[in-house]
Write a structure and sequence with these properties.
The complex is a heterodimer of chains A (79) and B (691).
Chain A (H helix, E strand, L loop, with lengths): L2 E4 L8 E7 L5 H7 L7 E6 L6 E5 L4 E4 L1 H5 L1 E5 L2
Chain B lengths: L4 E8 L5 H9 L3 E5 L6 E9 L2 E7 L11 H13 L3 E7 L3 H14 L3 E6 L1 H6 L2 E3 L1 H8 L3 E3 L8 H11 L15 H14 L7 H10 L2 H8 L3 H17 L3 H20 E3 L7 H8 L3 H22 L3 H7 L3 H10 L1 H20 L3 H37 L1 H14 L8 H7 L3 H6 L7 H10 L6 H13 L3 H31 L9 E4 L7 H35 L14 H9 L13 H13 L2 H11 L4 H8 L3 H13 L4 H11 L2 H29 L1
Parallel strand pairs in B: 1-4, 1-5, 5-6, 6-8
Antiparallel strand pairs in B: 2-3, 3-4, 7-9
Helix pairs in contact in B: 3-11, 5-11, 7-8, 7-10, 13-17, 13-18, 13-19, 14-15, 16-17, 17-24, 22-23, 22-28, 22-29, 23-29, 24-30, 25-26, 26-27, 29-31, 30-31
Classes of the chains: A alpha+beta (79), B alpha/beta (691).
Chain lengths: 79, 691
């Protein structure tokens, strides 16, 4: 069974697929513009349990995002 | 072909190479102004091409057309309201699908568009191949490959701009799937209403569905129509929940993918940065590596310019003669010697008259000041340009973000703060690399509190006058108090803006562009465009201020020429201001000398010491302090005061020219004076009790 969770709890090195967002305003719109939309595959390059996360996003380069913002991204982690 | 004037907007996502392309197209003829009522700079260039006069306007880099950030608002208002003849949108050939997003949204707004695909020289070596004809056919606008570094494709781009100015017809229609029915219904209602609504209707309909605040505002006045449109949107929300904006983004990317599938081919994908990633994002290693890198750059700048701290290192290793040579022949001294020669020559040629004295002291003195700053700024800008072009800046920002977040700043602030330890002027100038306008204004207040090299020199001199216990304490105390002041002010501003309900959270969302070896030409463009600005803007003000200062120290209150500064206007002002220093334990008939020196320190901190010695006619600073009758507690307090109050005229000028607001510059000066005064009075009382 795939697990649905927020991005900040995805382990380093794991891949996840974006399913949705906790709110649709402000910074989330920026995420959309950078290619982070429902269905996008994300590889978590760095996640230390605190501080910012580094992601590799399907269509583009690497992105660094703060933990607060990562909490707003709902993802599905395949087994 | 009829000759005419074309207004052309240049737009692109961050990191796609927009400013590089603008620099190449503009050559040297760049006009820098501000966007009306905004603190964001507006770059404009005038070119002549095949009988056309092209006004090229560089818009701020943005990811998409929401109305959230200042940059987005400026760009969107310019494209929608000012309606330029042609818009050139940049797509990065290294990540074409992602950066095409902005182009797609523009294709929905405008018909007169050119898509410039940048960094094409790199794309080939990275195994990315793009079929431009297929893209042109899909988008029905010219698509031009360019390389700013190799200067290829520029004429083709200019031809395409002229061609695009004649395009007409409908904008691009993207398939939004299940949302199409709602979009069509909104469009139908909007076109029936025949308002003076000047936005492209379909794009406006999409924005309305997204809940765009500006489109919403414009429609609100339409009464019944607005009510009806809201009901359509409510219906859509019932079907799709709150996810409409990301659904719209998803459909746009699906459209991009469908075009890219046939037009973009990748032959090889390289992923070789695993180790670097590990090092750079380790929570303990990252800040260390980042700070060492910044300190290295800063040390390099100072070693070249003043010899310090390399001289100390060389000495401790036993290379005394090498250290001595560097102390004599560093850039600062070389410039100083050249200027002295020039001054001597002028005086010899013109004779020792008042006019020649004015020319040498006021004019040449001002030019010297500018010359002494230039190498510092230049080296700082080259270092920053290299870090920027290589993709290191955002990585360093990430490394120290968590640390700076504790005082309400973001990782972006690191570079200006560290650079300011050397000199506040480049520190202020490079705040322009900070993306958030709010944080940038904050930094302009914080940066001048960082003790620079000039203040270190003054502190060393003061510390040497007090042999006993507080003497050793003066330097660490000054640094600790100024860094605490920076942290405290930052926290206070943060609390204030949270209290006012402004952007409380420092969010981090940074693209990390691929690392690559920096290109010298790009570094040069970066450095030169920054320095040019400083020379012309700050240079004139520094010169003017120096002239005023000369007049104040060489004229008496009834405007007669004085033989010594003791009876000058500046001396009178100092005498009048002397009571201000009473809370620091500074009293007596000679106290005004100290005020005079502090006033001179406004111009440049080094003048604090030289003017004390010049006016008193004594030989050492220690003698001067004894003559005034300063207690050790007063000396400690004065050292803190000197560190904290306005660093120098050049920094204030830099703040003024960067913020383009006299108000900001004056506020910074006022806050600095107040804080410096309060902190030094407190220090005085603490030390009077202790000693």
């Amino acid at each position: 069974m795939p697990i649905v969770t927020s991005l900040d709890s995805v382990k380093e090195g794991a891949k996840a697929i974006v399913r949705g967002f906790r709110d649709e305003h402000g910074w989330v719109r920026r995420l959309n513009y950078m290619g982070i939309i429902p269905g996008t595959q994300i590889e978590v390059l760095v996640n230390r349990g605190s501080g910012p996360l580094v992601l590799r996003v399907e269509r583009g380069t690497e992105v660094c995002i703060g933990r607060g913002l990562a909490r707003k991204i709902i993802v599905e982690v395949p087994d | 072909m009829s000759a005419r004037r074309l207004t052309v907007a240049l737009i692109g996502q961050p990191n796609v190479g927009k400013s590089t392309l603008f620099n190449v197209l503009a050559k040297q003829h760049v006009i820098v102004t501000n966007w009306p009522g905004k603190t964001v700079e507006r770059y404009e260039a005038h070119l002549k091409y095949r009988g056309h006069e092209i006004v090229l306007v560089d818009l701020p880099g943005i990811y998409g057309f929401s109305y959230l950030t200042l940059e987005e608002r400026i760009s969107r208002d310019f494209i929608v309201n000012d309606n330029p003849d042609v818009v050139v949108v940049l797509v990065d050939s290294l990540s074409p699908e992602r950066t095409m997003y902005l182009a797609i949204e523009l294709l929905e707004i405008k018909r007169n568009l050119v898509i410039a695909v940048t960094k094409i020289d790199e794309a080939h070596s990275k195994g990315i191949h793009i079929n431009f004809e297929l893209l042109e056919r899909a988008f029905r606008v010219p698509v031009v490959p360019v390389s700013a570094v190799k200067k290829s494709g520029l004429d083709r781009l200019l031809d395409a701009i002229i061609k695009a100015s004649r395009l007409s017809g409908d904008q691009l229609v993207v398939d939004y799937g299940e949302l199409n029915a709602f979009i069509d219904e909104i469009v139908a209602n909007l076109s029936r209403a025949r308002t003076d609504f000047k936005y492209p209707l379909r794009w406006a309909a999409i924005k309305f569905l997204e809940g765009d605040p500006e489109v919403e505002e414009r429609l609100k006045s339409s009464g019944e129509l607005y009510e009806f449109l809201v009901s359509i949107r409510a219906e859509a929300k019932k079907r799709f929940g709150d996810n409409i904006p990301s659904l719209i983004a998803k459909r746009r990317f699906e459209y991009i993918d469908s075009v890219a599938r046939s037009a973009i081919v990748r032959t090889r994908i390289t992923r070789d940065r695993a180790l670097l990633t590990k090092v750079f994002y380790n929570p303990y290693v990252a800040p260390l590596v980042s700070i060492s890198l910044l300190l290295f750059v800063f040390m390099l700048v100072f070693a070249i310019n003043t010899g310090f701290p390399l001289t100390v290192t060389l000495e401790s290793l036993g290379y005394t003669s090498a250290a001595e040579w560097l102390r004599e022949n560093n850039l600062n001294n070389l410039i100083g010697r050249c200027v002295e020669l020039l001054k001597g020559a002028v005086l010899e040629h013109l004779g020792n008259t008042l006019a020649s004295k004015f020319l040498v002291e006021a004019i040449l003195g001002g030019v010297t000041m500018l010359l002494l700053f230039l190498p510092l700024i230049f080296i700082a800008m080259v270092a920053l340009g290299a870090l920027d072009d290589s993709g290191m800046v955002p990585r360093v920002a990430v490394g120290v973000h968590t640390l700076l977040q504790k005082v309400g700043l973001s990782g972006h602030s690191m570079f200006p703060l560290v650079m300011s330890l050397g000199c506040n002027v480049p520190g202020v100038l490079i705040t322009r690399a900070v993306p958030s306008a709010v944080e940038r204004v904050r930094l302009m207040l914080l940066v001048p509190f960082i003790p620079c090299q000039a203040r270190l020199v003054v502190l060393l001199a003061i510390a040497a006058t007090v042999a006993s216990f507080p003497g050793a304490l003066i330097i660490p105390l000054a640094y600790i108090s100024s860094l605490s002041v920076v942290a405290t002010i930052s926290l206070i501003i943060n609390l204030l803006s949270r209290y006012r309900g402004e952007s409380a959270e420092v969010e981090l969302l940074l693209e990390l562009p691929p690392l690559h070896r920096p290109i010298p030409k790009v570094i040069w463009w970066f450095a030169w465009s920054n320095i040019k600005h400083f020379i012309f803007k700050a240079g004139t003000v520094i010169l003017l201020a120096n002239v005023i200062a000369w007049l104040l120290t060489n004229l008496s209150p009834n405007l007669a020429v004085v033989s010594t500064p003791n009876s000058s206007i500046a001396a009178y002002i100092s005498q009048w201001l002397t009571p201000v220093l009473r809370p620091l334990g500074v009293e007596g008939p000679s106290a005004w000398v100290l005020v005079f020196a502090l006033l001179m320190g406004f111009i440049a901190k080094e003048l604090f010491i030289s003017s004390l010695i010049m006016i008193s006619g004594l030989n050492t600073l220690g003698e001067v302090f004894t003559a005034i009758g300063l207690s050790p507690a007063s000396i400690v307090a004065i050292s803190v005061l000197v560190t904290l109050y306005v660093p120098c005229l050049a920094t204030l000028v830099a703040i003024y020219s960067e913020s383009r607001s006299l108000k900001v510059a004056l506020e910074v000066a006022l806050i600095m004076l107040t804080v410096a005064y309060i902190v030094s009075v407190v220090i005085y009382y603490i030390f009077s009790a202790l000693l």
